[in-house]
Amino acid sequence: MEFTKTLVKELAQIAEDAVADKLKELGGFHGVEIEVRKAGGSYGDSEYTAKLKFSVIGGETQAEKDYKYWSKMYGSTGEELPLEMLGATFKYGPKTITVKGFLPGRSKNPISFEDTKTGKAFVAPVEGVVTSYRRHVGNQLEVWQGTPPSAKDGSSNG
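The structure corresponding to this sequence follows.
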């Protein structure tokens, strides 16, 4: 038998489910609620190394911490990385995304986001994501500052 992509995916899911079930059974780990998910791995003909990522539920991820740090750093350079964009959901190209954090090791595409429809993680350049976010915020402002429908037709409620 050789490891294949399909077999590896199945094994990774089994490992994730088994560990998650055990953590639920224990009621957490040392009193802390832990989330587990697949985080890649590598395989060859006769060997598979799986990676699982463990996160404290409700805790701040490293990407979120890095986002907050780099948001301040960008501000000091005159460029923009809005702090309020972290966790925001808006359209980016054809996707609706939620910004998850900043990955400083990825110089060209440091913004980490999740496709809200599929739940898949992606990365993108700062400028493109900030532009889409600013467009979203601008559209929200137009809605908030727009003329109420009753004022457009000349009717009044008073």
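The helical segments are 5-26, 62-77, 126-145, 149-152.
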